[in-house]
């Protein structure tokens, strides 16, 4: 366990990459993220909660069991890992990260990526130390990738059209309705209804009209 009380995000990230355990508890039963939150180091909490070791993704770049081909081509592991570990979850930011990488901005590549994200989501929910936050994040990115595929297939302006749709505001008040509906749809499609995080999100969003 490590205690990121100094508030240094870079050091926290370096320690995570060096193999620091995030789910071990200290003498008072708190994890590193909980301790960082307790002392007000919320940037460090964000880094810890968004960390996903590259080797966990690389697992899918090798054939498993009876598979003849890996689920994720090696060339896609780097670009996908960059998106998985980003702390900016705005849908426009995620689409821009897809758009800036030619290897990723293709229908077949995105199909492989979102299927891997769905597998990681499932593993996060079924492992002994359930990680609902990471599961929800993987599911959310997967939903955005699937929407990217729709725009790549159906729209001439492709991902630019997706970004415009996300940014377009309602005429009377500028509210981004498409963006709001996309986020709500991703929450509604989360397959693990018993998840505490899902129930909290639904309770927060349900009373709020678009």
From TrEMBL:
Which residues belong to the signal peptide in this entry? Answer: none
Record-linked InterPro entries: Ankyrin-MYND_dom_contain_2, Ankyrin_rpt-contain_sf
Q: What is the name attached to this protein's record?
A: ANKY2 protein
